[in-house]
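Hey there, shall we discuss this one?
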Amino acid sequence: MLVKELYYPPRYGPEWGSGGIFGLKYHRGVLYYTLAFEAIAHFIRKDEVKRYRFELVGSPPASGGDTYNAVDAVDEFIYFGGWVHAPAIYKGKTNGESATISFVNKYSHVHEYDISNDNVRLLWKESIHHETDWVGEISEIIYDPVNDRLLLARADGMVNLGVYQLNRRGGEYKKLSELPALKGAIFHDYACFDALPNWKKGASGIQCLELTSNKSKKVAFDDYSKRSLDGDDVNWPITGVASTTHGRFFLFVRGGVFIGNPIDESIEPVTFVRMFDFVKSGYYARRTMAKPVGGGILVAFNAYSEALLYPTDSFEEFLKLATNTIVGPSVLVYITPPVARIVGAFGARITGFELVKDKLVLATSNMANTGRYDATPIDTGYRSILMIDQSILSNQPPPVRFSIKGIQVENKTFGGIPLAGYKEPRLIINSSIDNKVTIYGYDLSLPLQYPERDVFAIGKGKNIIELKSYGNSIVAFKLEKADLSSVIKIDLL
């Protein structure tokens, strides 16, 4: 297979900051992906490339396409969805700095690509033609093999949110759940999704749809600390991605991952496991993928997937600080319970990945998806496709440093760093006061087990705590007293 374009510099595409390369899917000899915000779908086979510019949705020039990886494949068809401005309207700067776009031509969409005939067909589109609001974007497509239909998740938008169905001919469009959903996966004979009624508060639970009856079940997250393995709260657990392995459903959110059986918690309760939680930070598995690979889950945690430059209220002020604070590189993590292992370290974000023969194809970007008043007439990111040998999944993990400020974490639990494969991991705390730090050590043995706790006294100045005794564990940390001027480093060597 020849991928002719491996590097995409900024080009025309009015939206918020940078989109990325989304929807990577290799099926029956074809590699599909959509370049956002330019809104160009690519279908690559051998030395041929077909490009589709969403002209079936509306007039050019289009922007958008997909920014959540809404794609699935059945038989000789690839189904891809998302949203698109057709045509795009950049309104420009209004007060010298902040800028906006018009949403009047923003559509949500589902398309079909017929591999046999090399043909793209529009199955469904929807818009409310509003200047500032939009219908729920298609953020997930799941094929239901029981009813031969597509299940669509929608949570990013103002109206028409929830779980929907669409048959493979483009008909029988119907809402199945009122609860907004962003991501999901097949789990046993159910399709399970997050429940995201309020993105400012984060995921409120998991909703599951029985494929044979359309009956639904829901697990509510009423108190995050009561579900947390370490007993502490979770700050802004907004949905990232979802997957399944080892008979469990995995819902990744900002701060970690919920693991368990949402269909019947008497079999195994849904429990929160802290992973890569830096409290006031935008670091998590957002606008990326989680895929079953080798019987486990390969997932990316992104350092800079979203950012806000011009806040309008106190919550957005928090988001501006959190999302623009970079604590470490984006990492690829391979979860094979009981072990989670870092297998790659990269730049701002990994927007997708796919296994193609002996290669792992990575889609990357160096710029975030920004906010409402951060609009630009171009995609501001430099995006690229990397071809990496699949041996990365079993090689020695890369050296990584996470650097955290005390003002970010205060005295809340943070971390959840997989140590597997590292010979000299250590925690370095430059403290301005005498303090204590609790270290939690745990793994992903199933059923999940409560972590071990060790307490270390630290003094004013530089403190080094060796972590190699924790072996292949995941480790999290908590300062007894908030030390806002402290600097904390986690070195993985």
The CA atoms of residues 50 and 215 lie 40 Å apart.
